[in-house]
Amino acid sequence: MTPSATESRHLGIRIDRPAGEVYAYASDPSHLPEWAAGLGRSIEEIDGRWIADSPMGRVVVAFAPRNDHGVLDHDVTLPSGETVHNPVRVIADGPGCEVVFTLRRRPGVSAEEFERDAAAVSADLATLKHLMEER
């Protein structure tokens, strides 16, 4: 199957914490290394930009402005200069919430690489769940 720009997979997890609390934590870029190992083990703010040391090299991470709708979209600019847009939502569901990450398959990414990316995102979401529910 040839990858298309529109092929995507929605990966979600239920978290037994209020949506506002999960959003506040996850939208703070300084918390990324605690739960998003797929993005980077460390991050620092340099000249108003968040720079992460990722498995792909140093990347720039830019979140959507804080909002009341649970939108956690973020752009990751790779060392190559390519920018990848990552749609993420924190959706209220009673006393808890669901976090949904839309993983898009970029051109040139094999089926195996796409599966590895999906597994990494799922692992990151599971870590976020664990951290939030242990608070």
Folded structure, characterized:
The chain has helices at 19-26, 32-35, 111-134, and strands at 8-15, 42-46, 49-54, 57-63, 74-77, 83-86, 88-93, 96-104. The termini are far apart. The protein is globular and about 40 Å long. It has three helices and eight strands. It is α+β, with helices and mostly antiparallel strands. A five-stranded antiparallel β-sheet has the order 2-3-4-5-6, with no helix packed on it. The protein has a three-stranded antiparallel β-sheet with strand order 1-8-7, covered by helices on one side. It has one domain: Alpha-D-Glucose-1,6-Bisphosphate, Chain A, domain 4 (2-Layer Sandwich), CATH 3.30.530.20.
Low-confidence stretches: none
Instruction: Report the β-strand fraction as a percent range.
Output: 35-45%
Outline: globular
DSSP helical segment count: 3
CATH homology superfamily: START domain
Tell me roughly what share of residues is in helical segments.
25-40%
* Radius of gyration (Å): 15 Å
Kindly, what is the distance between the CA atoms of the first and last residues, rounded to a whole number of angstroms? 43 Å
What is the averaged pLDDT score?
Answer: 92
Task: List the main descriptive attributes of the protein structure presented here.
27% helix, 135 residues, three-stranded antiparallel β-sheet, 8 strands, Alpha-D-Glucose-1,6-Bisphosphate, Chain A, domain 4, five-stranded antiparallel β-sheet, alpha+beta
